[in-house]
Amino acid sequence: MPQDAPDPAADSAAECVIEYFFSPLSPFCCLAGLRLEEIAARHRVRVRYIPFDIMKVFAAVGAQPVGKRHPSRQEYRLQELRRLARLSGIPLRLSPAHWPTDPAPASIALVAAQRAGAGDVGRAAHALMRACWVEEQDIARPEVIARALAEGGIDAGALSPDASDRAEYEANADLALARGVFGAPFYIVGDDRFWGQDRLGHLDLHLSGLL
């Protein structure tokens, strides 16, 4: 192929987008760490970060919030989180001091950062999750949000989230439902859906054309 001719495979990869539906209130999103970003970088694909109101989606699909689930499911969830935390090396708190809290302020800030093309949204999102699940901070507080954004190289003072950012966040739950999302984390490439941080390996293989 001539050096100045376009590479069809590169063009295809450049057009590929991973839609990442997540909630900072989900411990499983926190346990994913930055593996999604590593996979996206390796395959040279873009990630679209879509924080959504997971409680609204749970209500729509008939899923129970954690506190209303059968005790056996609640016990299993804690066992599973304990195991996954050991495997990931992330020192997750099983019952953090400020959980649940209002996820809207942090989520709206991430929407605004992505719209502005500011910094590393993935790193900032993970910093918010660690603030909640590891550092036991209240991610509804402006100073906590600002510190997490700064970890992604984002200046919270320069963002000025507005009504359109809030509207986008609120609409993300409807988008999630339209795309077949029923939990978090949820990764979508085209029509292929992957639920859970334990399916990141499957996503990797899919992007490699092996699955």
Gross geometry: globular
Number of strands: 4
- The helicity comes to 40-55%
Biggest β-sheet description: 4 strands, mixed
Which structural class do the helices and strands define?
A: alpha+beta
- From the N-terminal CA to the C-terminal CA, the straight-line distance is 28 Å
Low-confidence stretches: 1-14
- Give the radius of gyration: 18 Å
Give the number of helices.
10
Question: How large is the share of residues in beta strands?
Answer: 5-15%
Mean pLDDT, as a whole number?
A: 93
**What spatial order of strands do you see in the largest sheet?**
2-1-3-4
User: Helix and strand string, N-terminal first?
Assistant: HEHHEHHHHHHEEH
Give short descriptive properties of this protein.
alpha+beta, four-stranded mixed sheet, 10 helices, 4 strands, globular
